[in-house]
Design a protein that fits this description.
By secondary structure, this protein is an alpha/beta fold. It folds into two domains: about 100 residues, Urease, subunit C, domain 1 (Roll), CATH 2.30.40; about 280 residues, Metal-dependent hydrolases (TIM Barrel, Alpha-Beta Barrel), CATH 3.20.20. It is built from 14 helices and 16 strands. The strands form two sheets. Strands 1, 2, 3, 4, 5, 14, 15 and 16 form an eight-stranded mixed beta sheet that branches. It has an eight-stranded parallel beta sheet with strand order 6-7-8-9-10-11-12-13. α4 crosses α5, α5 runs parallel beside α6 and α11 runs antiparallel to α12. The chain is globular and about 70 Å long. Bound molecules: N-(iminomethyl)-L-glutamic acid and fe (iii) ion. Fe (iii) ion binds next to loops. GO terms for molecular function: imidazolonepropionase activity; iron ion binding; zinc ion binding. This is Imidazolonepropionase. One of its GO terms (biological process) is L-histidine catabolic process to glutamate and formate. Pathway: Amino-acid degradation; L-histidine degradation into L-glutamate; N-formimidoyl-L-glutamate from L-histidine: step 3/3.
Length: about 400
């Protein structure tokens, strides 16, 4: 790993104690430390040491001599770094013309993915390294400290493996998405493509990935194909997550629950049975407001999911087709304004919700022992993330205790 991305190499992590003092509002996401589900502490302090959180609480109780360095937050808000659990960062080219056509009335379809597949296959490795690193850096500037990254624009054995190697330079959360769409050379024999994914492609790709994902939707893969790919991935030790029910109703959510996927992503078109299945599982519903924003589609019904007890995450879904943004504060603002999530729910979903969607307990919160991934806002409260849409409020970012922004 390069150590430049959202997940720096741990032995190089911040080894000098840092006290972040005079915090106006501290979001810990640990109800044992503060008020409500966000574990809010007012007039707080936070101590980072050895790459982890060493202490969090009211500043009146901060342990004496807790750190060598003091940062004065000046009454501003501090929260856990964003955990963006859904990204397609390894690609070449863009789809400006498709976006412009869509904004003049053309609908979004899965077929546009093939435009990016052609550009990605043609791109040299160093170009993919550069463009991926640039997106990761862009995400970090808006407060993302953990990011998931999928393949899915290569769709040959060599091109999928190459995309995963690029992703692995930046994150441990690497996802094999060979089943994104059927590539053009297999257009009239999709089952042969599924067989390739389930055999040689997975053999080459599984060693580089942690997760397996399938785009289970109209224009992509059906229920039987999705099950076959997830089963083949599981046989090689990969953990499942599913692109489910983005473009229309379908079996994606039910399959995600059936295989105990960490997350069902999009979840835009769901039935009562889908909601019930999610509520009685540990599969997180990851909502991707950037996709509905940029495809001018109806948003998922976050209230229905949350009110049924489904854990919800928010992620940026950065990709050149449906959601060309890395900006988690933007996603929070849209989720609050247009999906009727409360400001607190949206901040939880973009931090601890994302961590749950990646089955991680070391990120997404600032309890003692958590990785010291921290965001300082130029605002007195986390609510400003939705109250002040479009304003670049992230002014400081620490990853594993080391300051990387600010
Ligand atoms: O999550 N839904 C599938 N994949 C992406 C879109 C990819 C593209 O259009 O290039 C998504 O929205
Ligand atoms: Fe996606």
């Amino acid at each position: 790993m390069s150590g430049q991305g959202p997940e720096p190499v741990s032995e190089a992590a911040g080894d000098r104690g840092v006290l972040i003092d005079r915090i106006g509002t501290l979001v810990t996401n640990d109800p044992a430390l503060g008020e409500g589900s966000l574990g809010l502490v007012r007039d707080a302090a936070l101590v980072l040491d050895g790459g982890v959180v060493a202490w969090a609480g009211p500043r009146s109780r901060v342990p004496e001599g807790a750190a060598d360095e003091r940062v004065d937050a000046g009454g501003r808000a501090v929260l856990p770094g964003f955990v963006d659990s859904h990204g397609h960062l390894v690609f070449a080219g863009d789809r400006t013309a498709e976006f412009a056509a869509r904004m003049s009335g053309r609908p979004y379809t899965a077929g546009g993915i093939r435009t990016t597949v052609a550009a990605t296959r043609a791109a040299p490795r160093d170009e993919l390294d550069r463009t991926t690193a640039a997106l990761v850096a862009e995400a970090r500037r808006s407060g993302t400290t953990t990011i998931e990254c999928k393949s899915g624009y290569g769709l040959t054995v060599a091109d999928e493996r190459r995309s995963l190697e690029v992703a692995a330079e930046h994150t441990a959360e690497v996802t094999f998405l060979g089943a994104h769409v059927v590539p053009p050379e297999y257009a009239d024999r999709p089952d042969d493509y599924v067989d390739l994914v389930c055999s040689a492609m997975l053999d080459a790709c599984a060693p580089v990935a942690r997760w397996i994902d399938v785009f289970c939707d109209r224009g992509a893969f059906d229920g039987d194909q999705t099950r076959a790919v997830l089963r083949a991935g599981a046989a090689r030790g990969l953990l499942p997550r599913v692109h489910a029910n983005q473009l229309g109703p379908g079996p994606g959510v039910q399959i995600a629950v059936e295989v105990d996927a960490a997350s069902a992503d999009h979840v835009t078109h769901v039935t009562d049975d889908d909601v019930e299945a999610l509520a009685s599982s540990r599969t997180v519903a990851t909502l991707l407001p950037g996709a509905e924003f940029s495809t001018r589609a109806g948003y998922p019904d976050a209230r229905r999911l949350i009110d049924a007890g489904v854990p919800v995450a928010l992620a940026a879904d950065c990709n050149p087709g449906s959601s060309y943004t890395t900006n988690m504060p933007f996603c929070i603002a849209v989720a609050v304004r247009d999906m009727r999530m409360t400001p607190d729910e949206a901040v939880w979903a973009a931090t601890l919700g994302g961590a749950r969607a990646l089955r991680r307990d070391d990120v997404g919160h600032l309890g003692v022992g958590a990785r010291a991934d921290v965001v300082l806002l130029d605002a007195p409260s986390h609510v400003h993330l939705s109250y002040r849409p479009g304003v670049p409020l992230v002014t400081g970012v620490w990853q594993a205790g080391r300051q990387v922004v600010g």
